[in-house]
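A reminder before we start the practical. When you read a complex entry, don't treat the lines as separate problems. The point of joint prediction is that each chain is placed relative to the others, so the output describes one connected object in space. Small molecules and nucleic acid strands, if listed, are placed in the same frame. In the example below there are two entries. Take a minute to note the order of the lines before looking further.
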Amino acid sequence: MPRLKGERAHSHQWGLRVGTEIVASTMLGLGAGFVLDRWLDTRPLFLLLFFAFGVAAGFINLYYVMGLDHRPENKDD
Amino acid sequence: MEGMQPLHPFTVHTQLPIELFGVDISLTNTAIALLLASVCSTAILMLLLQRQSILPGRWQLLGELYYDFVRNMTVKNIHEHGERYVPVMFTLFTLIAGSNMIGLMPGSFAPTTQIVVTGTLAIAVFLYTIYLRIRLHGWGFFHAFAPPGIPALLLPLMVPVEILSFLARPVSLAVRLFANMTAGHTVLGVIAFFGLLAPWYIQWVPLSLSVALLGVEIFIAAIQAYIFCVLSCVYIDDAIHPHS
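Here is the predicted structure of the whole assembly.
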């Protein structure tokens, strides 16, 4: 998963990155839910479900970014 | 005041209408700025390396330092096979940095303020990483969506979340570059308008601020190109050496 070496030196970039990770995942989840709902005519079931999935995906990305950032380099999981 | 719309500079206009076999391939201001950015950056690099010698002169040194910077970034982030991806990263970095910089010239247009441009670049990188995964690891890369050690009961929850977090990569790449460039240019425009609107005795505050902001924008233009390329490298590295 993504991790940037030396990114801690630029806290502003680090913050922006964390923000976009969550926003992108949530947007994608909402988009997928919206499309599925329109296709299957189940509004708002998939929208709500995929919104939750999207937020969870955002936090998972965030967890990977944070978790790997603290570990020594090249250490296997 | 007329024309005081901060988002007005980002409107796409058709400059040269062209239609080929019923398909609209008109040249817009985005396409022209993108072409201009690539032509200018190629011309500058060619000028820098015009007179090549073993003992590099000032301009050759500048070109070599620039190449070395992109090369180091690529090799550091793509372990083992980094050298192979230096040309593509160099092209990507030069194109994005050129597109970001060209928008800072008065009267010009930054192609990276259009999400269609950043999205195309991000999707191209994303599809390339998928191609690399399939070529190197076969269809086995789909196992990455089911993290090891997860109870079977949780799989229906974890697999969609993992797939979404994977698909969010190009979205976050595209949105980050687009949002940073658009926000920067909007702030520059707003501060410049403040300068025009302010009474004469206070005009120097927003005008000097816009000069300082232009400096920050040049820095952000380079940093954003760097981040886009580093993340592309990280994704390529992830495709070559899947961690799970």
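Discuss with your neighbour: Chain B has one domain: 2-240. What might explain this?
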